C-alpha cells in the first residue's frame, strides 16, 4: 500500500517533507488506478505547508523584488489576461526573465538571464500606468497601510498587490493539486483553522488518549 513509516530525528530518516509526500500520493494514485480503473478518486488535505507547497517557478509576488536582478526566483512565463487595459496585449505571452542574449547597448543588459522584478512586469503589460493613475501618479512596492488594511489591499494601490491580483498569479495551484488533477482525480483542501472537519484529527486524538492514559483511564474516557 501507500503507507510510509518514518523515524524522524538526528541520524534517522529526517522530517516528513513535501517531496516524500508527493511520492506517497503518486503511489496512492497508482494503487487506486489498479483497483478502480474507471473511478475518480477524491483527495482531501488540510492546510499544512507540505500539502500546499508550490513548484519552484510558480508565480508568487512574495518571491519577487520590485527591481530586476538580486535574490529572487525565476518564474514561468505568464499569459496576459483578456481584461488587460491594452487590447493589443490580450493573450500574449510575457516572460518573467530577461533574455540571455540582450545586445550590449540594451538598457537592461546587466540583468540578462535574470528575473525582471515587479516594476518591469507591470510596465510591460501596461499596468504601471493604471497603478499610477489610481495612486495619484505615485507607485510604491508595498506600503505599511496595505499590509494592515484589507480595504487598502482591495484598492490595489501598490505594485505587489496589483500583480498578485492578475489572473495567472491567482490561478496558481499547489504541486500536489497539479499532480492529482493531472491524473484525472479531484483534490480538495479543507479550510484553515478547522481541524474538526478533518476525520484524521479525531482519530489522532483518540490514539493519543489511548497511548497516554492507562487502560483503566482510557475506558473511562470512551464511556
Can you tell me about this structure?
The chain has 223 residues and is mainly alpha-helical. It folds into two domains: 18-53 and 187-211, no CATH class; 61-171, no CATH class. The protein has ten helices and four strands. The protein has helices at 18-35, 118-124, 128-134, 144-148, 150-154, 159-164, 167-170, 175-182, 199-212, 215-222; strands spanning 42-45, 78-79, 93-94, 186-189. Strands 1-4 form a two-stranded parallel sheet. Strands 2-3 form a two-stranded antiparallel ribbon. It is elongated and about 80 Å long. One of its GO terms (molecular function) is nucleic acid binding.
Short description:
By secondary structure, the chain is mainly alpha-helical. Helix content is 37%, strand content 5%. The strands form two sheets. The protein has a two-stranded parallel ribbon.
Can you give the helix content as a percent range? Answer: 25-40%
Q: Measured on Cα atoms, how large is the radius of gyration?
A: 24 Å
Provide a count of the helices: 10
- Main sheet: strands, sense, barrel: 2 strands, parallel
- Residues in β-strands, percent: 5-15%
Q: Distance between the terminal alpha carbons, to the nearest Å?
A: 34 Å
Spatially, the strands of the biggest sheet line up as 1-4
Order of helices and strands: HEEEHHHHHHHEHH
Q: State the shape.
A: elongated
Query: Could you tell me the mean pLDDT?
Result: 82
- Contiguous low-pLDDT stretches (5 residues minimum) are 148-157
Main structural class:
mainly alpha
Number of domains as seen in the coordinates: 2
What is the number of beta strands? 4
Protein name: Tc1-like transposase DDE domain-containing protein
InterPro entries: RNaseH_sf
Organism: Scleroderma citrinum Foug A
GO molecular function: nucleic acid binding
Amino acid at each position: 500500500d501507500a503507507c510510509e513509516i518514518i523515524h524522524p530525528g538526528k541520524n534517522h530518516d529526517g522530517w516528513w517533507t513535501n517531496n516524500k509526500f508527493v511520492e506517497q500520493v503518486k503511489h496512492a494514485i497508482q494503487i487506486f488506478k489498479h483497483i478502480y480503473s474507471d473511478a475518480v478518486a477524491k483527495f482531501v488535505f488540510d492546510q499544512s505547508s507540505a500539502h500546499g507547497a508550490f513548484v519552484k517557478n510558480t508565480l508568487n509576488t512574495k518571491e519577487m523584488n520590485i527591481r530586476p536582478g538580486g535574490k529572487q526566483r525565476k518564474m514561468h512565463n505568464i499569459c496576459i489576461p483578456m481584461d488587460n487595459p491594452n487590447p493589443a496585449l490580450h493573450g500574449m505571452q510575457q516572460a518573467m526573465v530577461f533574455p540571455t542574449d540582450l545586445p550590449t547597448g540594451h538598457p537592461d543588459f546587466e540583468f540578462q538571464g535574470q528575473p525582471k522584478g515587479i516594476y518591469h512586469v507591470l510596465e510591460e503589460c501596461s499596468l504601471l500606468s493604471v497603478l499610477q493613475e489610481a495612486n495619484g501618479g505615485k507607485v510604491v512596492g508595498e506600503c505599511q497601510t496595505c499590509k494592515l488594511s484589507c480595504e487598502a489591499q482591495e484598492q490595489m494601490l501598490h505594485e505587489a498587490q496589483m500583480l498578485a491580483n492578475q489572473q495567472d498569479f491567482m490561478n496558481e495551484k499547489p504541486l500536489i493539486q497539479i499532480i492529482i488533477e493531472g491524473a484525472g482525480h479531484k483534490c480538495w483542501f479543507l479550510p484553515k483553522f478547522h481541524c474538526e472537519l478533518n476525520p484524521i484529527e479525531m482519530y489522532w486524538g483518540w490514539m493519543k488518549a489511548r497511548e497516554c492514559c492507562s487502560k483503566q483511564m482510557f475506558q473511562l474516557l470512551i464511556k
